[in-house]
Design brief:
Distance between the termini of chain B: 82 Å
Helix content of chain B: over 70%
Number of strands of chain A: 2
Radius of gyration of chain B: 23 Å
CATH topology of one domain in chain B: Four Helix Bundle (Hemerythrin (Met), subunit A)
Oligomer: heterodimer
Shape of chain B: extended
CATH class of one domain in chain B: Mainly Alpha
CATH architecture of one domain in chain B: Up-down Bundle
Strand content of chain B: under 5%
Structural class of chain A: mainly alpha
Shape of chain A: globular
Order of helices and strands of chain A: HHEEHHHHHHHHHHHHHHHHHH
Radius of gyration of chain A: 22 Å
């Protein structure tokens, strides 16, 4: 008996899988000078994967569930898949010039990147523990390898090894927690776990399982105290890979956390709420204070992304203390934050790639006067960094607004305390984001700056396109927030709000 | 308690569990990397025995084939090919033992405690005879066909990435030479 498969629902994943294999085969037959074709095929494949997504979004079939509810394509899955496709597209664009100029194994690089995007697509649809775990592995595992892609560089070796060892530990914790959940409920699908686990929220084994699962995903989203790998890995990995790690990989971790906590453990919110509260408060505070002392731009962005993960966790903690409507609001707030964060952080990383090429350094001091010889890049850097800080009218402001809205909407003293912590941290974050912009625009050009030709050389076309697209989204979404909230409201289906 | 001892399966369990516990400790404490690998074989073999005891033959033999047969052999080959020192190696012994042992012990208390409270008084219901393999095969290709396919991509990605990272890079001059050779 053949399983019942809805091929349209699987079309985006199949497109990506086929593209990845084509890239790999093409790489085998292309002479070295024409390897750039692998990049073109990869970019085209990811663009094509968006077409069935649109077809699924406009079709009026509604939610498509298959294989006993293990794989579901609903509005939540579609919005997140769209985000993963666009983020993957931008990272591919960023990689083109970077990978080519550094004589990497291009075909294999794009193959692994496509594999990771495929993993995140499957993740957005998975509604049982096995599918979810395998999808999470497919997201992270190519990244362990890509982090070490600069083979000759010791820091890249360290980045890969550190990420791999801690990632495997996280996977083990995750799987151990999941095995306990299965043992206690006898169910694999989230709907089944929610039904069976309703009366079990107080059992020690159930609490331990939930905490293990949160810890496992805590590594993936790099929340304090599970963030130790992030700064070293981001700094040592190729910068487009760091951008992917900080956006798609992190978003994948959040999607998994959202789906598991909201749809499998809705009745155990008394267990995961406080745990997430602690994670959020620690992530925001410790990461922001450490970021203040950073002198390397990539390390600064690494700590900033840890702190942003803390902001994204705030609505989770709020959800635990409210009713069904509040649950939906908090859910949508996190999704809004993830979507906006993806664009502004990808933009920031793209600017860093372009800026590092021009200034020849990753030290923030060396970026002095960038605005004077590359005004467009300097202006875009200001856009992304101010957006990350949450200054209106840029998109980051909307993200902060819905986050605070969810926290204050819950109304409990604990949530107001968390909102106050978040507000203080938003101010601290402004200091280090603004410092980068100040260095770019107000500091003199350092004596160590490279030659005039290097500084004024034009940015690679694909990288420019990536920066331009991200900037357009950040600015337009800032003026028309309804564009983003339209999508995030659609995702509430999962939280029942 | 006398019930517990009169059941022969419990005796087998006791022996297997002791073997696993002792060899697991030796995997960590041994200063010889080959010894560690061999103790791991012992621990995994006894675990396969536990699965047999639960009449889950398929899982037991997969454990033997994949872990003992492939992973450990690969590990030993890895040691041999890279010419890593196989004798006792003091560098494998780390100084701060107390905190690590403490953390491991706490972890043990948490997992064992919650496991006991959750499953301590449950009877083990055995699966039917010999159907489990067939059942797993059917489930893998029907209900769990998507994760099954996705796993194949995980393995392919690991293979491709692993080879790329492990292979020796040709110097630019060598690459040019091979290029010309291909063209000629």
């Amino acid at each position: 008996m053949a399983p019942d498969i809805d091929y349209l629902a699987l079309a985006p994943e199949i497109t990506l899988a086929v593209t990845a294999v084509v890239v790999l085969l093409l790489d085998l037959f292309l002479p070295r000078r024409q390897k750039y074709w692998t990049a073109i095929v990869a970019v085209l494949g990811v663009s094509f994967a968006a077409l069935p997504l649109i077809a699924l979004a406009v079709s009026d079939v509604g939610d498509r569930a298959m294989l006993g509810g293990s794989f579901v394509v609903d509005d939540f899955a579609l919005v997140l898949k769209g985000l993963f496709v666009i983020a993957g597209y931008l990272v591919l664009l960023m990689s083109v010039g970077y990978v080519e100029s550094d004589r990497y194994y291009q075909g294999e690089y794009y193959f692994l990147l496509l594999m990771s995007i495929l993993g995140s697509m499957v993740l957005a649809s998975s509604r049982d523990l096995i599918t979810l775990f395998i999808a999470v592995e497919l997201v992270s595992q190519p990244m362990y390898l890509l982090a070490g892609w600069r083979k000759g560089d010791l820091r890249s070796n360290e980045a890969s090894l550190k990420y791999f060892l801690l990632g495997v530990l996280a996977s083990a914790l995750l799987l151990y927690g999941m095995s306990f959940v299965y043992g206690l409920t006898g169910e694999l699908t989230f709907a089944g776990i929610a039904a069976e686990g309703a009366g079990k929220a107080g059992e020690p084994a159930f609490i331990m399982a939930i905490l293990f699962i949160i810890a496992g995903f805590g590594f993936k989203v790099s929340a304090v105290p599970f963030h130790f790998w992030a700064p070293d890995t981001y700094e040592g990995a190729p910068t487009p890979v760091a951008a992917y790690l900080s956006v798609s990989s992190k978003a994948a971790g959040f999607v998994a956390l959202l789906v598991v906590l909201y749809s499998a453990f809705p009745d155990a919110s008394g267990v995961w709420g406080p745990a997430v509260w602690i994670l959020a408060a620690l992530s925001m505070t410790l990461a922001n204070l450490t970021a203040l002392r950073q002198t390397n731009i990539v390390r600064l962005l690494a700590y900033s992304s840890v702190a942003q993960a803390g902001f994204m966790l705030v609505p989770f903690a709020a959800a635990a203390t409210t009713d069904a409507v509040g649950l939906g609001e908090a859910f949508a707030a996190t999704v809004t934050y993830i979507v906006i964060y993806a664009f502004m952080n990808l933009g920031a990383f793209a600017v860093v790639i372009a800026g590092a090429r021009k200034t020849g350094t990753g030290d923030i001091e060396g970026w002095g006067g960038l605005g004077s010889y590359a005004p467009a890049l300097g202006a875009l850097a200001a856009v992304f960094f101010f957006s990350l800080a949450g200054i209106p009218p840029l998109a980051g402001w909307i993200a902060k607004l819905v986050m605070f809205g969810a926290a204050m909407g819950a109304g409990s003293p604990w949530m107001i305390a968390l909102a106050v912590i978040a507000a203080i941290n938003a101010v601290i974050a402004l200091v280090y984001y603004a410092r980068v912009v100040k260095t770019i625009w107000m500091d003199p050009v350092p004596a160590t700056a490279p030659e005039e030709e290097v500084r004024t050389a034009s940015v690679a076309g694909s990288l420019g396109l990536a920066i331009g697209l991200s900037a357009a989204v950040v600015v337009v979404a800032g003026f028309f927030p309804s564009l983003v909230t339209f999508f995030s409201d659609a995702t509430k289906v999962l939280a029942g709000g | 308690m006398s019930d517990w001892f009169s059941e022969p399966a419990n005796w087998v369990f006791l022996v297997l569990a002791l073997v696993i516990a002792v060899s697991a400790v030796r995997v960590v404490t041994s200063t010889n990397v080959v010894h560690s690998a061999l103790f791991l074989v012992l621990a995994l073999g006894a675990t396969a025995g536990l699965f047999l005891l639960l009449s889950a033959e398929f899982v037991a033999w997969v454990l033997v084939l994949v872990y003992i047969g492939a992973v450990i052999v690969l590990f030993l080959f890895g040691i041999m090919i890279t010419r890593a020192p196989t004798g006792p190696n003091v560098e494998m012994d780390h100084r701060p033992r107390a905190p690590a042992a403490m953390a491991a012990f706490l972890m043990f208390i948490v997992t064992a405690g919650s496991g006991l409270t959750a499953f301590g008084d449950q009877e083990i219901t055995r699966l039917g005879d010999g159907t489990s393999t067939e059942l797993i095969g059917e489930q893998l290709l029907q209900r769990f066909v998507i994760p099954f396919e996705v796993v194949s991509f995980v393995l392919l990605a690991a293979l491709i990435g692993g080879i790329t990272l492990a292979r020796r890079d040709a110097s630019p001059a060598e690459e040019e030479a091979t290029e010309e050779e291909v063209q000629a």
